[in-house]
Amino acid sequence: MSALSVTGVTKSYGRTPVLAGVDLHVPTGTTTALLGPSGCGKTTLLRIVAGFDDPDAGTVELGGRVVAGAGRPVPARRRGIGFVPQEGGLFPHLTVAGNVAFGLPRRLRRDRGRVASLLELVGLDAALAERSPHQLSGGQQQRVALARALAPEPSLVLLDEPFSSLDASLREDTRRAVVAALRATGATAVLVTHDQAEALSTADQVAVLRGGVLAQLADPRTLYRDPRDLDVAAFVGEAVVLDGDAVGGRVASELGELVLGRECPDGPVRVLLRPEQLRLSAGPGPRARVCAVDFYGHDARVELELPSGRRVSARTEGGDLPPAGAEVAVAVSGTAVPFPTGAPTPAPAPATA
Amino acid sequence: MLLAAAVAALALVPLGHIVVAAAGVGWSGIADLVLRPRVAELLVNTVRLVGGAVVVCVVLGVGAAWLVERSAVPGRRVWHVLLVAPLAVPAFVTSYAWISLLPGFDTYGGALLVVSLSYAPFVYLPAVAAFRGLDPALEDTARGLGLSTWGVFRRVQLPQLRVAVLGGALLVALHVLAEFGALAMLRYPTFTTAVYDQYRATFNGPGATMLAGVLVLLCLVLLLAEIRLRGARGYARTGAGAARTVRPVRLGALTAPALLALAAVVVLSVAVPLVSLVRWMATGTSAGLDVATLATTTGTTLALAAAAAVATTVFALPTGWLAVRRRGPVATLIERSTYLGSAVPAIVIALALVTVSIRLVPGLYQTVPVLLAAYAILFLPRAIVTVRAAVEQSPPLHDDVAASLGASAPARLWRVTLPLLAPGIGAGAALVFLAVVTELTATLLLAPTGTTTLATAFWSASSALEYGAAAPYAVVMVLLSAPATVLLSRDVLPAARRGPTP
Questions:
Q1: CATH 2.40.50.140 in chain A, residues?
Q2: Range of lowest pLDDT (A88-102, B17-31, B474-488)
Q3: Which ranges of chain A would DSSP assign to H, the alpha helix?
Q4: B7 phi, psi to nearest 5 deg
Q5: Are B435 and B501 in contact (CB under 8 A)?
Q6: CB contact, 8 Å: A93 with chain B?
Q7: Is B405 close to A152, i.e. CB distance below 8 A?
């Protein structure tokens, strides 16, 4: 059963098409991340689902009820959707309690127990109830915004880049608190983000939006390990892409013979590896020259130049790092994902870590 | 949209009146009325007073702002309040204070001193705000590149202050052009006083209208010049994060001269008027203070000011809302036309409303609604600027969130939009209220017969050289204006002071 079904939704602003036929199904009780680069239409889609904007074509169904697409669209206030905007969007003239209780029926607004339990749900101290929004940290504001959205027990919660304005340190804590609160209430949630790590770690399924259409909808592991095309692969994580010829489930490449992770017809292919699959050693094997080393503490990223001149990255433990300029041997663990070059695939975008 | 357009149309009535009147007189008539030695003399008088006042105000305002914001001069907070204080004393009261002390003060120098001291805060306040908005990191960087304090001021701070100082200078120039009371009392003739004299002599002959037309042209020239000089470039602080605090520049041996200069400005602009007022108050009350009349006049003034504040704020709401929420050429045009209407001196607005009310609705001539309309045209920008700022502060996001929480449109207006706008609306209304309390020119021309306000009562007494009898009215006006001045000095909000207060 889908809590939310979006079918063939298109939307243009003036002559600029933003959404070009998006289909998206969100099962009840799950969290879906809507992932895409800036300007790919994520926020527009969210606003259409929430009812702040109307689609040009296509339908939006909530729990089997059509709310946009057939006849008059159902206004936002009758959709029963909780909305958590980017910066929290707390009402500055109301206290925390006033904000949380805003969507409750009048008789329930004065119920302090209700507010306290909602604050507890998002991991906040009930003593904050009488504070003003500006007295809260960014992370606390974000949690109050979630409590406010959850208060009327919505069928669906939409979160628009809820963590992007937070410091790295606050972000992780806030993200965990938000996920825990969503799980605890069994709420269905759609989270918009441009941060791959956030999408992969938070969601049950990730929808990659690209150029106004859905490029892939999959669970995080499948998306990362078995992406549909190289573009998606490069978008959800740093990619090592090599050329080779597939013969009987194996491919000969610059980094030696690789085992393919899925069925592939014989012929020319490009294969995808992830930087953490590359192991560096002083021993025998395919050689590469170290161009640069970025040390992060918990691990390190080593940029390598292969004899062909191609540059690839390896992620290794931070313990025993080769110096820049050194010659190292490269071994590959695990399997590679093949993309036959017979079928045209878009060139991968520059990889981002 | 329609409401806002109607408000803009109201604001443009005075300009329209001048254009229509000029068309009626025809080119030869205009030439006869305008190309006269008397007009040339007025032009010279007006231009040299405006030019002089702008120069003095910019030097005083920027210099004082630098001392208060960037130097280690002792007592910076106190100086700040004292430097804003002249705003609490209407220019015609300052003028009265000086002329009643020194009867030989009716010279160009005297007029320049009075208007400069009265209007220097118009440059000082935006300059202070701009200094506060400057990223000190830029100044540190410049110092790191080897610039002296003077070099930092000239090459880093001054270019960034340009927009603020130009805005302030424009305000000073428009105010001096529109100033009536102060200059009439000093017997320094400019276009504004000449328009008034013409009006008194011939009631509403084409002579007055044509002089007003020249005055309006001068205003428009100033507005265009400011737009040209300001340029399109904006200066934004690059990078987010809180700006670091400023380390004030030590003055060393220059501390004493700096203190002396500040003290001189404050003594001339605040102490002299207040001492003079207190002196005349003492003489006046010894002859017997008519408490009942004073109370009635104060009551009338407060009632008029309250009504004007409500009317102007109501007029400002659609325009302020439109300017933010429906951005576009039409909204900008409407907003700008209200500003343009208000850049016109009060004497011209009053004159136009006299004519229009007599021609179109004779019953309305010299009634409260026409007076309120004049106040609204004069002070709309103050209300619009604050309403606009409040609307900016309440992004549509809150409306969306409230809708997703199930609130209907009226509920959203009541529970979200109005509470968010209330402080801004209140501030705008307060600014208009205080401006009306000390308004003289339009009130003199438009007030119903028998209605006296503090300003007009003060005016008739001091015109008759009854300085003692005038003092109590001036004191009440200063006392009523003081709270707003303290507020202004606290949160530097220069944008709220657009538009003239003649």
A1: 239-340
A2: B17-31
A3: 42-50, 96-100, 112-121, 138-150, 168-185, 196-202, 220-225, 230-236
A4: -60, -45
A5: yes
A6: yes
A7: yes
Locate CATH 3.40.50.300 in chain A. 2-230
Q: pLDDT at residue B153 above 80?
A: yes
Which tokens hold the place of B21? 């009147």
B409-418: pLDDT as tens digits: 888 888 888 8
Closest CA to A264 of A226, A222, A295, A307: A226
pLDDT at site A145: 93
Question: Which residue has tokens 């109201």?
Answer: B10
In a mutational test of the A interface, the residue from B394, B401, B414, B425 whose CB has the highest number of chain A CBs within 10 Å is B401
Measured between beta carbons, the chain B residues lying within 8 angstroms of A52 are 400, 403-404
Determine contact, residues A144/A109, Cβ cutoff 8 Å: no
Residue B460 token pair: 């008739």
Residue A141 has pLDDT above 80, yes or no: yes
- Summarize pLDDT for B328-384 with one digit per residue, the tens: 777 777 777 777 776 788 888 888 888 888 888 777 778 888 899 899 988 888 788
Pick A2-230's CATH classification: 2.60.40.790, 3.40.50.300, 3.40.50.620, 3.40.630.30.
Answer: 3.40.50.300
The domain defined by A239-340 carries CATH number 3.40.50.11600: no
Residue of chain B whose alpha carbon sits nearest to that of A76: B404
Q: Does A85 touch chain B (CB under 8 A)?
A: yes
Q: What are phi and psi of B172, to 5 degrees?
A: -60, -50
pLDDT value of residue B358:
82
Q: d(Cα B5, Cα B374) in Å, to the nearest integer? A: 17
Structurally, at CATH architecture level, domain B2-229+254-497 sits in Orthogonal Bundle (1.10)
Cβ-based burial of B299 (10 A; exposed 0-12, middle 13-18, buried ≥19): exposed
* Residue bearing tokens 């939307």: A11
